């Protein structure tokens, strides 16, 4: 799954730590999501969507070939 978390976080001028605090996870979790090493739960995805003021489909999408790593 691809994502635009880092881009969206930078648009809001938030650090990984600040975003993590607002959604209730660690900075490391945000880093792993940004590197596409961890797919968040639906609950966490919705929290990220709210804080970053983006819809889920603006933040997360599947690659065109359907390969989800």
Can you offer a commentary on this structure?
By secondary structure, this protein is mainly alpha-helical. 55% of the residues lie in helices and 6% in strands. The protein is built from 5 helices and 2 strands. The chain has a two-stranded antiparallel ribbon. Helix 2 (16-23) packs across helix 3 (27-34). The N and C termini lie close together (7 Å).
What is the compact description of this entry?
Helix content is 55%, strand content 6%. By secondary structure, it is mainly alpha-helical.
Key descriptive features of the protein:
69 residues, mainly alpha, two-stranded antiparallel sheet
Q: What would you call the structural class?
A: mainly alpha
The main sheet orders its strands as 1-2
- Approximate shape: globular
Quick one: how many beta strands? Answer: 2
Estimate percent helicity. 55-70%
Low-confidence stretches: none
Number of helices: 5
Question: Distance between termini?
Answer: 7 Å
Mean residue pLDDT = 94
Strand content: 5-15%
Radius of gyration, in Å, reads 11 Å
How is the main sheet built?
Answer: 2 strands, antiparallel
Order of helices and strands: EHHHHHE
SSE topology:
Layout: E1 2-3, H1 5-11, H2 16-23, H3 27-34, H4 42-52, H5 56-59, E2 60-61
Helix pairs in contact: 2-3
């Amino acid at each position: 799954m691809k994502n635009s978390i880092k881009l969206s976080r930078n648009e809001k001028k938030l650090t990984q730590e600040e975003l993590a605090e607002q959604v209730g996870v660690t900075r490391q979790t945000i880093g792993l999501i940004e590197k596409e090493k961890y797919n968040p739960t639906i609950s966490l995805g919705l929290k990220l969507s709210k804080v970053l003021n983006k819809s889920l489909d603006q933040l997360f999408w599947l690659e065109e070939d359907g390969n989800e790593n």
